[in-house]
Design brief:
Rossmann fold; 459 residues; alpha/beta; 17 helices; 2 domains
């Protein structure tokens, strides 16, 4: 009876944890409440971890505590140390660790084959497959985002080879589920094939698709955790995995929609490979000194700032907000425009601007602000590229054709702060840079913005 009461307490705590997870996720959907949501979900995770120690069947407490100390210590150290520009890499890496953990649980279930029913074992195998794919694919995504893997490998028949590897993994998983005493070699082969498929699936995907890919593998990790939760009959894992899987799936769909592409197109097309022909570029890039750009901004009635990855690299968000405040004090109306796939992960630019103290009511999504560009005097583009390229509207041969973009080219004047003349993730020339109303301001974003501030102050 005492054990029954204890399990009831555990289930009640798990129920409260589920509520904290769901409320936390809801609060994370808006910048104003995101911090509270993260803290609430963190409290829920701590409670779920702590109460699990009370399970009567639990053992190996020393190993568990050592693992928690090592894992928690590394997470705390890396979280404090990581720069905002490297946050996408960290998310990809941590997401892979979640998938790997689910795969490890599945491996233990397969090694203790006789202790589980066929149904629960099948769920554990499914979780092991999905978790392994998420682990290896997320590691490839991390390597690409971190610059450790710059090449995109593609060859004839690659899709068919990938399918055969996946088919072999599934076949071995089915064999393990139906056999009474599967050999260890079969289990090892299952995980080798699963890991290989994850890496092979991610290797051909170009850098331009990484925000979508990270969201997809996040959903896969959640699904794997949910399956392992069913296998272990652990309600906290089921709920947490389901919530993460659902949220990741919705975010993946939203990101793909923002690029006007299907998920299949993201996974199996050549977008992000670069080298597309596209329309011939007409005109020439026209350079402007920071002092001239500052004058254009100072005498504008309305200005829109469009941040991109170049702002993140230069850590220029604080100076950009200082520039915006300076202009507003001089009577200029300033807004910030955010494209859904700006930066290297969903919400990247929003996080950076929030860190700098930019009020939420000055930050607008693509749909909210696109109509304003036609009546805007000056647009300042800071390190963005493909999300403002007008060929997305006109050139059917372009890899970004059909992708909704910010209508920066429709403003009276466009000032583009860029480190050099390189192309964006999609590997194509930006026709915006060659328009008559566009001027290139070359240099590190933070240094250029400092010059803009100093010039405006001296006017």
């Amino acid at each position: 009876m005492e054990q029954q009461h204890l399990k009831l307490v555990i289930e009640i705590v798990y129920f409260v944890v589920a509520i904290l997870f769901i409320l936390g996720l809801k609060q994370m959907s808006h910048p104003k409440t995101a911090r509270k949501g993260i803290i609430g979900a963190g409290v829920g995770m701590a409670a779920a971890t702590g109460i699990t120690f009370l399970f009567p069947e639990m053992g190996n407490f020393l190993l568990i505590l050592i693992a928690l100390a090592v894992g928690g210590g590394l997470a705390w150290w890396s979280g404090k140390r990581v720069e905002m520009t490297n946050m996408p890499q960290m998310i990809a890496l941590y997401n892979g660790m979640g998938g790997g953990s689910a795969a490890a649980i599945g491996a233990i279930a397969m090694l203790h084959h006789a202790e589980h029913s066929k149904a629960l074992l099948s769920l554990a195998i499914a979780g092991g497959l999905i978790g392994s794919v998420s682990l290896s694919a997320s590691l490839v995504a991390w390597a690409k985002l971190d610059g450790k893997m710059n090449k995109v490998w593609r060859f004839s028949g690659q899709k068919y080879l990938n399918f055969l590897v996946l088919l072999s993994a599934v076949s071995m998983g089915v064999a393990i589920a139906v056999m009474d005493a599967p050999p260890l070699a079969l289990t090892i082969g299952f995980f080798v094939a699963s890991l290989a498929y994850g890496a092979m699936m991610a290797v051909p995907i170009g850098g331009a698709d990484m925000p979508v890919v990270i969201s997809l593998f996040n959903a896969c990790t959640g699904l794997a955790v949910a399956f392992e939760g069913f296998a272990l009959q652990n309600n906290a894992m089921i709920i947490a995995g389901t919530v993460v899987g659902a949220a990741g799936s919705l975010l993946t769909q939203l990101m793909a929609k923002a690029m006007n592409r299907s998920l299949g197109n993201v996974l199996f097309s050549n977008f992000g490979e670069g080298g597309g022909s596209g329309e011939e570029v007409k005109g020439s890039m026209k350079e402007a000194a920071p002092q001239d750009a500052a004058i254009s901004l100072a005498y504008a009635a309305k200005a829109i700032f469009i941040p991109g990855y170049g702002m993140a690299v230069a850590q220029a968000q604080h100076k950009l907000w200082e520039l915006a405040q300076l202009l507003e004090n001089n009577g200029v109306e300033v807004k910030f425009a955010i494209h859904p796939v700006a930066g290297r992960m969903p919400g990247h630019m929003n996080v950076l601007l929030a860190e700098a103290g930019v009020p939420y009511d000055k930050i607008f999504d693509l749909d909210e602000i696109n109509a304003d560009f036609a009546v805007t005097d000056a647009v300042l583009v800071i390190g963005a590229n493909d999300v403002v390229n007008p060929v997305a509207r006109t050139d059917k041969s372009s890899p970004i054709y059909g992708m909704p973009i910010l209508n920066a080219d429709m403003a009276k004047q466009v000032l583009i702060v860029k480190r050099g003349k390189g192309v964006g993730f999609a590997g194509i020339e930006n026709h915006l840079f060659y328009l008559d109303n566009a001027r290139m301001v070359y240099g590190d974003a933070q240094k250029v913005i400092v010059e803009l501030i100093n010039t405006i102050k001296s006017l």
